Records
---
Amino acid sequence: MIEGDRELSAMVQELWDNDVNRLKPGKDYRISLQGKAGNSMGINDNSDGAGYPLFTFVDENIFKKETFLAFISLLDNYESDTGEPEIVTPEEVAENHKFLDSIVQTPTMKIAHKYLVEKHLSPQDETQFKEQLYRIWFELYTRRGSSRPDSSGFEHVFVGETRGGRTVIGFHNWIQLYLQEKLGHIDYKGYSVNANSPQPDENKHILALQFSWKNGIKPKGSIFIGVSPEFEFALYTLCFLSSPNERVRVQFSFYEVEIVCHHYNQKHIGTTYPVLLKYNKHK
């Protein structure tokens, strides 16, 4: 492991250890992995490896916590189809700022901010830091095939988008997945594994999966499950700002993970998500 990744791993471990709002598998939530997803890209094919929802239980009292509440309020602010310009209302801007206000007060974001300041990657002033976060995550940009701003890092990663109505892109967040599944918009198709990836575990916090959303299919997605919004925000911001590579390998807790982080014009997050490489014995 190269030196930069080792340093980043230590930081991610610290974020993990201080993610006080993380849910406990089997206690705060339960998932049902069922079967392995097929290779088909169709919506109504017969390769569905799961006849039941992914989530069998989530303690929704958790969603009353400030950062979860602020995060969930943002999920309905977006037009999912790329190519459809986003209209951002003053109310939505206020909700974005309220979310950032809530997460910068959390231990995980404070740790990330301190590290980024030490590395001269973020301003020390909290207001300026929030402006930087806003630019990275919430400023609109134009995705492929569109003439007007129709996307943002936040929308792509946490909410999900559709391309051409048939393909789901982004959508790497478990809270959005749970809420959309509860509404009947998600059909979980099973977990995804390849020759090199470990078997998924219902008591671990990372899962590769296939699902359909609305009329589109996500052939393979990868998400953290049960972590807080501030943990993902801190982790992805850290990787975006501190690593010039679009793939960075980190080790923390039981996990060896590749964080994929594509930049858009070096100013915004294009996409970012975890890829589980293997389980480690927890040191």
Note: The two ends are 17 Å apart (CA to CA).
---
Amino acid sequence: MRGSRPVVEVVRLGLVSYQEALRLQQVYVSRHRSGPAHALLLCEHPPVYTTGIRHKPYPAPLLDSLRLLGADVHRTNRGGLITFHGPGQLVCYPVLNLSNFKKSVRWYVCELERTIISVCSRFRIQASTSPHTGVWVRDNKICAIGIHCGRYVTSHGLALNCNTDMSWFSHIVPCGIEGKGVTSLSTELQRDVSVEETIPHLLDAFRDQFNCQLTDGPTPETHRDSGQSSA
């Protein structure tokens, strides 16, 4: 990377619906049209199952059964298959122009993985990558990663299980990977690890891994949405 370190604005959204998070990501993506406007959106979601890009839609009965659990269901344009987001999960949506970092989606995904491995190490948890995208503790996924990149501007991102209710994952095959499990920081450490406790470690690791400067940004006004599912 040449020149000064890119400045990335940290935006703390708190608990926000998935649909509203999608809208806000597009707001921040649009800012890049007039120059670098890197942002890191941090949030939690009410219970929601999201499906990524795949050749065929998920069967309607499956999606209906998930809605009956009390969760929303949304189809997205990120990579990957089906996963769950909910309270106790730290969701991070980096909106970066990779032209100011490195013009490589593969590099970007690897840097996200390394960021989470670093976060886990700060909790003395040994995590690693695998042939499957994401970050793993043994055969259990602790962090899902699914991104979208258009004209080198990124959206979507990662979801790190902190003190998530893991029972929500039992209704799906997370990310479509058979024979694997899921875990969380709390499960691994056998104590409660909140999103609030995890955020400073994530920010430190992201700053180091992406060689950037972080600055606190204003919290945007959020809109209430209808909560209707889109899948």
Note: The two ends are 40 Å apart (CA to CA).
---
Amino acid sequence: MGNSALKAHLETAQKTGVFQLTGKGLTEFPEDLQKLTSNLRTIDLSNNKIELLPPLIGKFSFLKSLVLNNNKLTALPEELCKLKKLETLHLNGNHLRQLPAAFGQLLALKTLSLSGNQLRTVPTQLCGLRHLDVVDLSKNQIQNVPDTVGELQAIELNLNQNQISQISVQISHCPRLKVLRLEENCLELGMLPQSILSDSQISLLAVEGNLFEIKKLRELEGYDKDSGSVVFHQHLLKSS
């Protein structure tokens, strides 16, 4: 892409607060964006070939939305955690294995999407984020859900298409969790905490495609057949 085209995008972004440059084969984060650190509210650089997010990302102090889906990121800089106003972070389809240690400082974060990365566990840093509503960790390599998940504040947690065989009973203690998606994992029925059914806030549990039949789940103590306090989704449409 030529300099004139980039300049036009920068001029538009200065007026609108939105910089969107998707599917242009970019291999680097555009350094010229640092001229707009006080202007930008949204950056979308999806469907490029960016391998590294530079430390200067921490200078965008007014940024509310950062979208970098389908790039080649293998790590995130600690400076990202300085974005105190960031509410939405989409990093689907990268090669991330972990989050920065200071990720819990993103206190304004409401939506986090990390589908299609290489995470092996539910990041403990998420548990300190009090405004976090939606967490998508689908299509990773997560094998178990640890005790720390009980502190998660999210309303919806998507763990579809991982390798989960164990879930801590603490998941039933999540204070705001209403939707739990566990489709296409490696769960035996005995590994699913019954407290999810009898002693949690969860109202939608999606578990199709594990190592048990849904009808067996309906027979468990705690499943309220009359009021249907937990709705089991057997045939949710799966995104391609």
Note: The helical segments are 3-16, 195-198, 214-218.
---
Amino acid sequence: MMLFGKISQPLCGLKKLPWSCDSRYFWGWLNTVFNKVDYERIRAVGPDRAASEWLLRCGATVRYHGQEKWQKDYNHLPTGPLYKYKIQAIDATDSCIMSIGFDHMEGLEHVEKIRFCKCHYIEDDCLQRLGQLEKLRESLLEMEIISCGNITDKGVIALRHFRNLKYLLLSDLPGVKEKENLVQVFKTTLPSLKLKLQQK
């Protein structure tokens, strides 16, 4: 895959442009391009490989079952039988993943941990979309959401659908206002969940 090679050459000329609102619009557009779902690619290589490509393209990292090493480099994703590499953990710290890309998560069956930290494009509809993915609802055991300013109570409430979730960390989320209500909701729906609510 030479995706970055094709994009990087025209990007070199951006250094000559004045930084302004136009540059912010450009990066928003580029992030949208990186998040676009290619359903043909998913069918061709399977959900784990396609999701890995999406996540790394957006600056996240993944770890596969049976491996300790985190995959960070898009150009060094492992090759071999498509069924061999199953995503077990996702660290989306400082990534540009956004809601339009979350269809990449459909079909993932082995993800046990997800970390969203300083994800500026993560919003409530991202968490709601995750809560609709039946296979992920079964496999996910741990989730951390830290310093994601667009997340509110509405998004966090959607996590009650993860019936096997054992640990949930919510930290530095200014949009989350009704913390006592969240505690009661999770006590009722996920009684075995260890919930940690932290301020910054």
Note: The two ends are 40 Å apart (CA to CA).
